[in-house]
Design goal:
Radius of gyration: 74 Å
Strand order of the largest sheet: 2-1-3
Distance between the termini: 168 Å
Strand content: 5-15%
Order of helices and strands: EEHEHHHHEEEE
Structural class: mainly alpha
Number of strands: 7
Length: 370
């Protein structure tokens, strides 16, 4: 009977799937191939094995005796008993594990509660610390206030005594001095009060002088301003009178303007009428406007310096081109200059018979504008 196990997988060896190393150790063929993929040594003796030898058996019959069967059954019973014991142990372990997990949860919840309580206590401690700091500051402030109260009480007593000395009668002052005593403190206090009274008296005198000076300055300013006000009132009266006279003059000028406008309308009507006198006056007005036009100055194109003004003769134009002349230029040489031609004589217009002797025919002085 063949009863052996594979050292690689710890299973029983069968006759159909076996292989051996050169050293003689037998394994499953599949197990040995997978072993060779990682290492080329024997799993048992660790000798180098480059190749494996597959084993084959011819007509091998496996027979099992009664003893082997009983031994196997006994082993199975033992394994089942062991399994039952293991299962019982596993159940016990699970119970213990559940108990421990529940205990751990309880402990965790307790830890959380303790942490929360610790945080609350920390917050309370911080609040207590802040309160303590606030109280210490308040106590310091109260101590300072107490010192100030004591100082103010002493000053108040001194001021009351000072007021008594200023406003009280002679008997009241003597009673106060008797109550104070006759020590060095009273002497110092009285001397300090006297010094204060002197300083206050000097301040009052200085303030009185300043007030009197300010009063005099204000009176002077008031008198000067009053005088200026009176002068301005007189100027305003004069200006009002001038305004009234100007208004009267304006009214008179408006009346004169209306009268002149009426005269102008009448003259315009007389000019517009078809009479020989109206035609003559319109013609004279046209000639006077034409004669009053300014004459252009002459600038020579050849000699730019030859600028001549207010000449009576007519100069170069479209109808009068002029003439060229040569002569001495005053610089040691000769030059050509464009000279104007003689002016054309203007024919005199015959005096019409219908013109009145009071109308002027001279065209040089213009007629007055209306």
């Amino acid at each position: 009977m063949l009863r052996s196990s594979c050292t690689i997988c710890t299973d029983l060896l069968t006759c159909d799937n076996l292989a051996a190393c050169p050293c003689g150790h037998v394994y499953h063929n599949n197990c040995l191939e997978t072993w060779y993929q990682h290492s080329r040594t024997c799993p048992t003796c660790r000798k180098t094995c480059p190749t494996s030898i597959k084993l084959f058996f011819n007509d091998l019959q496996e027979t099992a005796s009664q003893d082997d069967i009983l031994a196997i059954k006994n082993e199975l019973r033992k394994q089942t008993a062991l399994n039952l014991e293991k299962d019982a142990q596993i159940r016990i372990f699970k119970k213990e594990m559940n108990e421990k997990t529940s205990f751990i949860k309880e402990q965790k919840s307790r830890v959380m509660q303790l942490e929360e309580s610790a945080e609350n206590e920390r917050a309370i401690q911080l609040s207590f610390k802040k309160q303590v700091e606030f109280l210490t500051e308040k106590t310091k402030h109260l101590e300072k206030l107490e010192k100030k109260v004591v100082f103010l009480k002493t000053n108040l007593e001194k001021l009351e005594r000072f007021e008594m000395m200023l406003k009280g009668t002679h008997e009241e002052v003597e009673d106060m001095l008797k109550n104070i005593g006759s020590g060095s403190k009273t002497v110092n206090e009285l001397s300090s009060q006297l010094i204060i009274m002197k300083k206050e008296n000097e301040k009052m005198r200085g303030a009185k002088k300043n007030a009197s000076a300010e009063k005099a300055r204000l009176e002077r300013d008031y008198n000067s301003l009053n005088h200026k006000l009176k002068t301005k009132e007189l100027e305003c009266g004069k200006l009002e009178k001038e305004m009234e006279t100007l208004q009267d003059q304006l009214k008179e000028t408006e009346l004169e303007k209306q009268n002149l406008k009426k005269k102008l309308d009448k003259m315009q009507q007389s000019f517009d009428s078809a009479s020989p006198r109206g035609t003559l006056i319109s013609r004279l007005l046209q000639e006077s406007s034409r004669l009053n036009k300014p004459k252009p100055d002459f600038i020579s194109p050849i000699h730019p310096g030859a600028l001549q003004k207010n000449r009576k003769r007519s100069y170069i134009g479209i109808d009068n081109p002029g003439r060229l002349s040569t002569g001495y230029n005053g610089l040691g040489g000769h030059s050509t200059v464009l000279m104007p031609s003689q002016a054309k004589k203007i024919k005199k217009v015959a005096k019409p018979r219908t013109v009145s002797k009071f109308v002027r025919t001279n065209s040089n002085p213009p007629l007055p504008h209306m």
